[in-house]
Amino acid sequence: MSASAPSASLDDAKAIVLGYFEDISAARYDAARARIAEDATWWVVGEGRWPIGGTYDKDSMRALTDMVRDRFPAGLKLTVHGAVAEGDRVFVEAESHGTRRDGRPYNNSYIFIFTVRDGLIRHRREYCDMFHANDLLCGPMDDAISQAEPK
Predict the structure, then answer these.
(1) Rg of the Cα trace of the chain?
(2) Residue 6 region by backbone torsions, left for phi larger than 0, else alpha for psi between -120 and 50, else beta
(3) Long-range contact pairs involving 58-65 (C-beta distance under 8 Å, separation at least 24)
(4) What is the CATH number of the domain that holds 127?
């Protein structure tokens, strides 16, 4: 009887995280946000080494999401290549693809570690190519390119 309970719990945590990625990829940002606890935190690799590195609360996560939505009006598509659940943690290998407002392509690879408790995401750690992310997320936009007429 108790042998199936941990598996069900692991499956639930994994389903919550995978649902979060599906919501983000489909631009259902409110649905994705509903999967996150009010007191959740989000840590991004590179604290002190680039503007996005560091720890965020739920409100500052929204500001970061808004910045990404502004730079990638068609959204970022996240593809999950693998997910493993252990205890209250879910480990995800993922990749993003998108086209920035000025036409520059973005493709990054990630390892995420989520903590899920009581049916909500409580913490997220994000490891990515911060140099590429810094260039396209924090670097200057070339709006002249996005407004130019095709030749």
Answers:
(1) 17
(2) alpha
(3) 58/33, 61/36, 62/33, 65/29
(4) 3.10.450.50
Each residue's pLDDT tens digit, 126-135: 999 999 898 8
Whole-number Å distance between alpha carbons of 148 and 25: 28
> What whole-number percentage of the chain has pLDDT above 90?
62
Whole-prediction pTM = 0.84
Residues 6+ apart with CB under 8 A from 120: 16, 35, 36, 37, 40
How many Cα atoms sit within 13 Å of 117 on the Cβ side?
A: 7
pLDDT score at 62: 86
Q: The tokens of 19 are what?
A: 């649902």
Residue 140 and residue 64: Cα distance in Å, rounded? 16
Strand order across the beta sheet in which 54-57 lies: 54-57, 36-44, 120-128, 105-117, 89-99, 77-86
First to last CA, the chain: 68
Strands 105-117, 77-86: pairing kind: unpaired
> Could you give the number of structural domains in the chain?
1
Helix, coil or strand: residue 115: strand
